[in-house]
# Entry
Amino acid sequence: MKAKFDTKGSVNRTDHSFYVDVESINSENPGSNSNQGTKVICLEDKDHVEPKTIETLGYALMVYLLVTNLGSSLAIYIYLRLVPDAQEVLKRKGIGYVIFSIFTAISSVGNCGFTPVNENMIIFQKNTILLLLIIPQILSGNTLFAPCLRFMMWSLKKITGKEEYHFIPQHPEAVGYKHIMNSKECAYLMATVISFIITQTILFCSLEWNSEALQEMNSYQKIVGALFQSVNARHAGESIVDLSSLSSSVLVLYITMMYLPGYTSLLPKDDEQHSNVGMKDKRRSVCENWILSQLSYLAIVVVLICITEREAMTTDALNFNVFSITFEVISAYANVGFSLGYSCQRLLNHNVNCKDASYGFVGRWSDKGKVILIIVMVFGRLKALNMKGGRAWKLR
# Structure
């Protein structure tokens, strides 16, 4: 759409470009190759990019999505055809190999957390190869999307030889696509993601190695399961264990990981482009200063849900506690999908009519609480619009 718009409203870019006549350079340098002829190199400014460049970016994204989704579906399908244990699980559920492969692959790449089975990935906790196949799908669709896209650009440049694939990664500000990062930012982002995963995996193994949730798994399966769980804690939301059975320290760690944005990096981005701010932007910045921060809104939401669920918190305190509600709110805000669930065994007064269900903890909330959580999920998807809020509310 941007490419078509620029084509219709194209302007004379002579004042915004720098032209180099290669023929004149060859005449001044006799040793250079004179067979190159006259070649024009146009360096666009950041406000005017050729529509062909935007179209090239669109094609690159299309290739990326096809490779990740179709490739992931094919990899899962091949695994299912080769492993009898996984086939038995799907046969019991009455689910076809093709639909499971496509559904799980797209859900993993899109970081949705949905699976075609009620138990999520718990029934596949011993299928380590399947878990290892899904891990890169999750990373390529979210936290490592920018580095993978840059690698895709580099590969397409080598294959096609088009200069646009070289120009786009070198001038991310000119293209205006936020997922295009320079090499330094990609390196720091990858280092951050890997360090987070390693930290979570070590803590998970050290705290949950002998837990009831992992008692039927051998050492190798526990390590792969911990790695899978750590990758999902950022945004994907798939799980191989009942989260309510994990220790509180691990759950607090997951809350922190869920709260962090996908592109959290050890290297902050340069704000040079914001150094010369116009009067209109200054007025907008002043307004943003008086808007509450992200964490403040989440605290308000937790208070509101505690009010709507106050009766259940009194009669069913083991299920309805502040920590469980906070975990559910942060998971909804980060669009992760993790849930501690609801257990009839934790009821203070035993109820014979109570039945455990496969849906999350919010399934037991009141309608008012569910509506509030819906708003939190939408707010989480639009949080980029309020990242600068809360400046005037910092305590000094």
User: Anything to note?
Assistant: The first helix runs from residue 2 to 8. DSSP finds 17 helices and no strands in the chain. The chain has four domains: 1-48, 64-140, 194-259, 273-393. The two ends are 46 Å apart (CA to CA).
